[in-house]
User: What shape does this take?
Amino acid sequence: MSTSSAAGRPAAAPGLIIAAPASGSGKTVFTLGLIRHWARSGLRVASAKVGPDYIDPAFHTAASGRPCLNLDPWAMRAETLAGAAARLAKAGEIVVCEGVMGLFDGATVDQGSTADVAAASGWPVVLVIDAQAQAASAAAVVRGFATHRPGLGLAAVVFNRVGSDRHAALLTEACARALPEIPVLGCLPRTTGLELPERHLGLVQALEHPDLAGFLDRAADLVAAHIDTGRLRALARAGWPEAPASAAALPLMPLGQRIALADDAAFAFRYPLVIDGWRRAGAEVVAFSPLADEPPDGAADAVYLPGGYPELHAGRLAGNVRFLVGLRRAAAGGAVVFGECGGYMVMGEALIDAESISHPMAGLLPLVTSFAGRRLHLGYRRAVLCGSGPLGPAGAAFRGHEFHFARTLQEGPGTPLFACADAVGRPLGTTGLVAGSCFGSFVHLIDRGDDTPGAGG
Assistant: This one.
């Protein structure tokens, strides 16, 4: 595998995509084990996660020691997507990209899937199949996925939750007869102790795992023992076109010159590309922990409260006087305060937890939210600014994602932040609030829209 180009520059690292027929097939544990195994072997692994996921990337980062970037073919402009891929290809010796849901599942029937990333990148696909309830029939599953989308590079198969050596032999033989050009690279046995705990927004965060290093090492040991990782590495290939110059465009413009970033277990849902983009634009980003009762930096001209799990820490946050007073002082001094989802809820007047206990929040916006009798809100969002502000001029368009279980008991009166539509363009009305230099909504912004004024610069 070459490490330099003909011109003497470092060559782009080859990549591959780990996908599955459906969620729950075991691709996350397999991906983490593979990353950890290669990293322990001294290989510099860069990783990516398809779609609007915050939690899996944190596990990737723990496994590799390097930041994991999201690749979202629905929510990201082509130049943002290509720029992220180019950064990954320069950050390691190999890129491992974990898919989302099933291989062909996306924002719509034909947009935003892992298969779209495979088509755009040229990275080969390795399909992880849960074989616990089938044997020779698995070959038909492989054939269906190999032929469903012409030109898709399905390069290999890994079977998971295999019951015995005989079971593994049946799976391997059936695939060899039906599709000899698509090798089976190994069969992972049914294993206990590698289940990742979950809560209402997905996996429990990596920083909360009681034995994260041990879990990652056990997953790596499993992969090393049962998968031909040398052959798997040989399948990886470079293929994503070099990012165009316009890829230097920022997903979001900086909120200020010195941005205080809430960063702890209650505020962990943010996109590295957004934060790195602010830094590339010259902004200084200074982290603080609301859970540790730290106020935002007094010299900051902007505060960013990302999403996370404030509902699990509402009582503690309500009692953290230094944090709340510091946040109010920043707003009173004219600093921009921007909250997304969990951060938006904390900017409100009160947050009611699952036990119906009301906890006073910062009171910067006329908002009351509740997790008593929770309700799921999930989906991609097209968001257009209702008025001019730090995010851009009125009419500026963005793409993002909403995923929460909060009920909104009060939102206003006040000026809405966005007019929203779903992934297929159906109007959803207005959302979010603006009050002076404070604003927020339940939408996690991922990138500017193609029709955003100034989006190319």
User: Anything to note?
Assistant: The chain has two domains: 15-235, 251-448. Residues 1-9, 452-457 have pLDDT under 50 and may be disordered. DSSP finds twelve helices and 24 strands in the chain. The radius of gyration is 23 Å.
